[in-house]
Specification:
alpha+beta; 3-stranded antiparallel β-sheet; 3 helices
Length: 79
């Protein structure tokens, strides 16, 4: 596995911030441009971590496809 300047988790968040939501197929295709040795299993693990941390929501589209959506947290204003 090659060393990358940006961790894959950061790359996922950056892509989702830009696009809002992507299917797992689209996300994997875009990530493989930079991370050629990325496996579906490794991507699923990173997505699970992001979902558990409340950064993304994952919705099943059927037939093994999923929709990954970035959760935008509005900053609370203090008075």
């Amino acid at each position: 596995m090659d060393w990358k300047a940006m961790p894959i988790r950061n790359a996922i968040v950056e892509l989702l911030e830009e696009k809002g939501a992507l299917s797992t197929d689209e996300l994997e295709k875009k990530l493989k441009e930079e991370y050629e040795d990325l496996t579906t299993s490794a991507l699923d693990k990173e997505l699970m971590k992001l979902e558990l941390n409340g950064m993304v929501t994952i919705t099943s589209l059927g037939r093994g496809r999923k929709r990954i959506e970035f959760i935008r947290h509005e900053r609370e204003t203090t008075r």
